[in-house]
Amino acid sequence: MISGRIAGRTTVALLVFAFALFYVLPFAGLVERAAEDGRTFELMKSDVALDALRLSLITSTVATVLAILLGTPVAHIIARRQFRGRSLANALIDLPIILPPTVAGVALLTAFGRRGLVGEPIEDLLGITFGFTTTAVVMAQLLVAGPFYVRAAIAGFESVSPDYERVASTLGAGEWRTFREVLLPLARSNLLAGIVLCWTRAMGELGATLLFAGNLRGETQTMPLAILQAFESRDLGLPGAIALSLMLITVALVILVALRLVTHRSAYEL
Amino acid sequence: MSFSFDASMHLGNFRYEAAFAADSELVVLFGHSGAGKSVTLQLFAGLMRPERGHIQLNGRVLTDTTARIHVRPPERHVGYVVQELALFPHMDVRQNIAFALDDRRGAAARKRVDGLLELLDLEGYGARMPRSLSGGQRQRVALARALAAATEILLLDEPFSALDESLREGLRGELLRLRRELGLPVLFVTHDLREAHLLADRLAIFDEGKLLQFGLRDDVFRRPASPRVATLTGVANLIPGRVLEAREGRLLLECAGMRLWCGPQPDAGCFRAGQAVVAAIRAELVNFTRHGEDHEFNHLQARVAEDLSYGAVHTIRLEATGRGPDLRAEIAARPHSVLGIKPGSVWTIELPPEDVHVMAAEANAS
After folding, report:
1. Residue A270 and residue B89: Cβ atoms within 8 Å?
2. Chain A closest CA to B306's CA: distance in Å?
3. Of B180, B168, B178, which is closest to residue B139 (Cα–Cα)?
4. Other beta carbons less than 10 A from residue A76's beta carbon
5. 8 Å CB contact of A171 and B100
6. Among all residues of chain A, which has the CA nearest to that of B47?
7. A167 contacts in B (CB within 8 Å)?
8. Set of chain B residues whose Cβ sits within 8 Å of the Cβ of A168
9. To the nearest whole angstrom, how far is the Cα of B18 from the nearest Cα of chain A?
């Protein structure tokens, strides 16, 4: 009995250790190589790196804000209303989550590219092209990362009993006030978690951006693209990729921890 | 203060239909779950729209389907409390109550909230968060919040059912006190017969979406309109029979071979000789007599087949030894022991004519 329990615990401990090792080692390797290479700091300060970082921060933030603006009403409708096609809409939201981002990139090209479904008439009428611009980067990130926010927001709204909104409405609160003062605060933890997921996913977006927005330094070259290019180039190579990766990890960690602190503080027990 | 309510709509598998009106009284909506009680409150609060209906509160039309009027919930001035209370967990008691006020920060709001805290015995709890309150305190916060705005009617949807019996007892008394002080009409949903009896000025009996009977509490309990209402309101003895004679408002029935005089019936004129009827008598009105003379009318011999003690009350199953129906009786513990009722003993049972209520047999009743 007792020896069986000890064996069980040892097995679990070993599995946990193996898991932790697998997750820690790659990052340890990264840091080790970066520290070894004298050029790391210099590479981090290079224009290529700083341009890519700035572009990544701006586009992923804009994409996240757009996801919140466009996704919140959709999430509210799916969580609260009964309508024909609701389960279809619910399933479609998950589509970009389960598809490889390269497919999303191809899809964006066929819709918004210069020869695309809407891209062509828009270019003819307004002279605007989306492809290979910073806008295209944001669009790619929005398509790939937005559903993470919408999914979390749906779960958040569904976790709040409709009784709260119904009672609030009988207490004289209109729909907007009820949403702002009752539903939003009660779904806050879920919404913040969704924002974090969406933003980090946008920061890491590569496939769709590469296909739809290209890899133009300062305009569409985000951090992941810059890392890929550095890795493939002759002059920078692996050390360049390492330096850029370390930058991306650091920035992402700082923002994640900050957001986690905010989320944690807002989580009151019900 | 008065209201009237009339609405109908399709609701899942059945049709919802109810119409009633009252002044500032406490109306208990009673029935099993899914009978249409909560729907009535939601229709009144404007949270649901009926297919056809007219709802009026103190002369204001809230719903009128023919005139296409549907006042939105925020403008109805109803105080709606649900079973789960739905106190806003991210606001303290004071903020919860003030949520209903137009101006939530001014001196007037502060005074109003203070008044409500005092009215509901919550002084000193204004800064507490709902999760730190006891069940009874939360209940009172929900009531205070529902009363905060210019509330003209209270709609209470099983507000006490999640609480311990001891707490419910106190809150029922509190509700009766509040009602006296405020003079508001109250619609109170419950499936607890004792609670219904204690609180109701008027009773509305719901079953499968329909309002079966509406009236003063004692009228509904004593004179159920149909065997179904009798069953729902706890009438234990429903005896099928036939009218032998109907004269001067009195009825003579024949039930299971026994002749049964019934006291004055308000609608005796509706019955004719030969008609199939159901006689209802509540278990607590069935009389045991020790050496009762067995008259031809209203008496029968019966054996105690089962005797269950609930402490203060015994419920007894009686089997007729000769003519007459089997019965259920209820007798307080004291007379039970004085009489010496034992399983298997035979008694003369009297069914007092004034306590027998006669209803037309339902078409589908056997």
Report:
1. yes
2. 46
3. B168
4. 17
5. yes
6. A166
7. 80-82, 86
8. 88, 99
9. 22
Q: Which residue has the higher pLDDT, A88 or B292?
A: A88
Can you tell me the mean pLDDT for A130-141? 90
User: DSSP string of chain A?
Assistant: -HHHHHHHHHHHHHHHHHHHHHHHHHHHHHHHHHHH-TTHHHHHTSHHHHHHHHHHHHHHHHHHHHHHHHHHHHHHHHHH---TTHHHHHHHHHHHHHS-HHHHHHHHHHHHSTTSTTHHHHHHHH----TTSHHHHHHHHHHHHHHHHHHHHHHHHHTS-HHHHHHHHHTT--HHHHIIIIIHHHTHHHHHHHHHHHHHHHHT--HHHHHHT---TTTT--HHHHHHHHHHSTTTHHHHHHHHHHHHHHHHHHHHHHHHHHHHHH----
Q: Are A67 and A146 in contact (CB under 8 A)?
A: yes
Distances, alpha carbon B315 to alpha carbons A162, B310, B337, in Å: 43, 8, 13
Tell me the residues of B at the A interface, defined by beta carbons under 8 Å apart. 42, 45-47, 72-76, 78-82, 84, 86, 88-90, 99-100, 102, 129, 131, 145-146, 148-149, 155
d(CA B26, CA A33): 79
Residues of B in contact with A163 (CB under 8 A): 82, 84, 86
Give the other-Cβ count within 10 Å of B134's Cβ. 10
Confirm if B46 and B40 have CB atoms less than 8 A apart. Answer: no
Give the pLDDT score at A263: 67
Q: What is the pTM of this model?
A: 0.83
Of B47, B89, B100, the CB nearest to A172: B100
> A174 to chain B: nearest residue by CA?
B74
User: Tokens 């003030």 label which residue?
Assistant: B98
- DSSP 8-state code for residue B264: -
Model pLDDT, residue A270? 39
Tens digits of residue pLDDT in B287-320: 998 766 666 688 999 999 999 999 999 999 999 9
Contacts of A30 (CB under 8 A, 6+ apart): A242, A245, A246, A249
What is the ipTM for the molecules in this complex?
0.84
**Contact of B346 with B254, CB cutoff 8 Å:** no
Q: Which residue blocks in B216-357 are alpha helix, DSSP H?
A: 217-222, 227-232, 333-339
Question: What are the pLDDT digits (tens) for B200-228?
Answer: 999 999 999 999 999 999 999 988 999 99
Q: Which of A172, A181, A182 sits opposite B149 (nearest CB)?
A: A172
Query: Is the per-residue pLDDT at A246 higher than 50?
Result: yes
Q: How far apart are CA B277 and CA B234, in angstroms?
A: 19
Share of chain B above pLDDT 90, in %: 72
**CA–CA gap between residue B126 and residue B116 (Å, rounded):** 10
Which residues in chain B touch residue A269, judged by CB atoms under 8 angstroms apart?
Answer: 131
If you count residue pairs, one on A and one on B, with CB atoms under 8 Å apart, how many are there? Answer: 63
Cβ neighbours of A60 (radius 10 Å): 27
Pairwise CB contact (< 8 Å): B74 & A268: no
Q: Which residue of B has its CA nearest to A164?
A: B86
What are the structure tokens assigned to A210, written together? 């590469």
- Token pair belonging to B190: 């419950």
Contact between A186 and B90 using a beta-carbon 8 Å cutoff: yes
List all residues 6 or more positions away from A243 whose beta carbon is below 8 Å from its beta carbon. A34, A37, A39, A40, A41, A43, A44, A49, A230
CB atoms under 10 Å from CB of B206, counted, come to 27
Which among A168, A174, A185 is the nearest to B90, CB-wise?
A: A185
Beta-strand pair B52-57/B60-64:
antiparallel
- pLDDT higher than 80, residue B78: yes
